Amino acid sequence: MGTLSVHALTRRVDLFTLRLFLTVVDERQIRRAAIRENIAASAATKRIQDLEEIAGVQLLDRQPGGVVPSAAGEVLARHVRLLFENLEDMRREIGEFSDGVRGHITVATTGSIIIQYLAREIGEFSRNFPLVDVELKQDANANVVRAVVSGEADVAIYVASKQPDEDALDTVAYRTERLVALVPLGHALADQPDVAFADLLREPFIGIPPYTTLMTDAHHAARALGQALEPRFSVGSVEAARSLVEAGLGVTIQPECMVSLEASARVAMLQLKEPWALRGVHIGTRRGRTLTAATRALIRQLTEQPAPAGSPSDHGK
């Protein structure tokens, strides 16, 4: 066998042979791979043998029932898969020059981020880029990040929370949101401009779904104070929680930009005096992944959007 070199690969190995090799690795049998690639089994065998000669090592271990990649074959398969991924990215990006920005983007995010920001902003993006199909996947904050890491989504828009999976993302800042406390009108705390979380823990607390980042942070903060957060009521939405506050049944915490002017007239809204009350919302893509023109356009539009009036970002904080 010869010695593998870049020169030999580029002059003597064609893309079809590399694709055939990947199919053999997937099928674990040259005959089945030949059928998939519409080539005679004898011709497929000859191509694989020629590839091994150029590589200078055995790429497949022959067994009675088929073949499995050798250690060298596993390495080659990994690099060839990356090669074809890059070729597909190149094809897509070049095609966008002739066809205009088009494509499909899967965005994983939380329900509260959709309500606060994305419904309006993706609507505007779709008007600006009618050839781009945007799919929204709503999930819990931690699952949103995992969806991009696993390749199930192209973009994650999530509340930054120091999750281990975040290290696998390239991120940009999107929004800063502030958590506020809502208490009934006429409550002993209602006339204060702000409130400490420890004071809220003395009141009947109204919780929203337990696996949200907000409730996770609240539970961590209570434990840091040596207490347990045990909600008197647990409801499924911020609107339901506000209605219980209006009825005088307790207090709650919500993102400030989700409290409309109309709703804020029916409850007392206090600033929450805790560092975790200011939270960053980030846009994340899989680290090192080449972004399509459509994805770049979406991220550019989202990050250039002005913050909603009354939000921390709007005030330059």
Automatic annotation (TrEMBL):
Q: Which UniProt keywords apply?
A: DNA-binding, Transcription, Transcription regulation
* Matching Pfam families: HTH_1, LysR_substrate
User: Which residue spans traverse the membrane?
Assistant: none
HTH lysR-type domain spans which residues? 18-70
The UniProt entry, under PANTHER family, shows:
HTH-TYPE TRANSCRIPTIONAL REGULATOR YBHD, LYSR FAMILY TRANSCRIPTIONAL REGULATOR
Similarity annotation: Belongs to the LysR transcriptional regulatory family.
Which named protein is this?
Answer: HTH-type transcriptional regulator GltC
Gene label: gltC_8
